[in-house]
Each structure stands twice: as C-alpha cells, then as structure tokens.
Amino acid sequence: MDYKIIYSNRKTLAIEVDENANIIVRSPKRLSKRQIEKFLLNKSDWIEKTVEKQEIRAKNRKVYSADEIELLRKKAKDIIPNRVKFFSEIIGVTPKSVKITSAKKRFGSCSAKNSLCFSLYLASFPLEAIDYVVVHELCHILEHNHSKRFWDIVQKYMPDYKNRELILKNKNFQS
User: Distance of alpha carbon 122 from its chain centroid, rounded?
Assistant: First the structure.
C-alpha cells in the first residue's frame, strides 16, 4: 500500500484518503514507521473500502468548463438568496450575509457571526436538495453544532431532510 506520511506536532495518528484516492497519514513526530505501519494494518479494511469509494467518485466526477461554472454561479445567485429569504422567515432567523463561493468540499457553511456561504456547485442539484442545505445552514444560526438539538431543529422545519440529504450524497458535485 502506497501512502504519504506527514509528521507534525499532533498527538494522534490520522488517515485520510483524498479525492484522488491517495492515502495520507498524519502522524506525531515521535512515532516510528513501524508503529505507523502497524496502525495502517489494523485499519486496512477501512482504507481499502475508502480508496475504492474515492476511485469510483473520481471516475464519475463531473468536470465543469469555465462557461459551465459561470452558468452555475449565475443560477446559484438567482436561486439561493431567495431560498434563504424564504426559509429565514419560516425559521425566524436572519443571516448576517449570504455569499456564493466556489467551494468544492462543502455545500454550505455558517460562520460564528451567522454569515452563510453556499457553493455554486449546489446549483447543479434539484431544488429539494438546495432547500435542505439552506435549512441546514439557517438552523446553525440557532445551534452552531451538529448536536441532537441541532438535528431536532432541522427536522422541525424539514421533516424529510434525510431523503434530501441522500440526493447530495448520491451525486458527485466536485469539479
């Protein structure tokens, strides 16, 4: 198994399989290569499954042209702020700002100051998936974590959120 080791001042070992199915091990400086290899051997099933999953995702990944990205950005700017306004009124919260970004690793985020960011790639999904991400991020204004209380709030405003979440998981959105 090929892998890259990144040593740092961390306390624990971590394994990451990146979007190109490369295995990256993050290790404390004090650990030997032998200790790392023993750890990898214990996690070999997980590594194998995750590498396979990432290879499939990489093969199916849609690559967008510059023109397609601009169309998605325009579509996102047309749809998402309106959906935020609609659901903000229902939930009773007001975000500080709403931005469309070119983020590839997340669909949306909510800052500690309640500023919302949404990936332009979200516009490649059906409205029910977009609405789920909007509600998810708006609910973070009420609860800035993923606790049971947070998920209860999401469910209150979107009882079928798990089905909508599956739409996002079943389609590869990265460019």
Answer: 11
Question: Which tokens is 127 given?
Answer: 């409205």
Please list the helix, strand and coil fractions of the chain in percent, rounded to the nearest 5, in that order: 55, 15, 30
| Average pLDDT estimate for 4-26 | 94
Higher pLDDT pick, 57 / 25: 25
Distances from the Cα of 169 to the Cαs of 73, 101, 164, in angstroms?
21, 20, 9
Terminal-to-terminal C-alpha distance of the chain = 27
- Domain locations in the chain as residue ranges: 4-60, 66-169
Q: Which fold has domain 66-169?
A: Zincin-like (3.30.2010)
Mind giving me the DSSP string for 87-140? HHHHHT---SEEEEE--SS-SEEE-TT-EEEEEGGGGGS-HHHHHHHHHHHHHH
> What number of other Cβ atoms are within 10 A of residue 161's Cβ?
19
- Which tokens is 25 given? 């091990």
Mean pLDDT of the region 29-50: 95
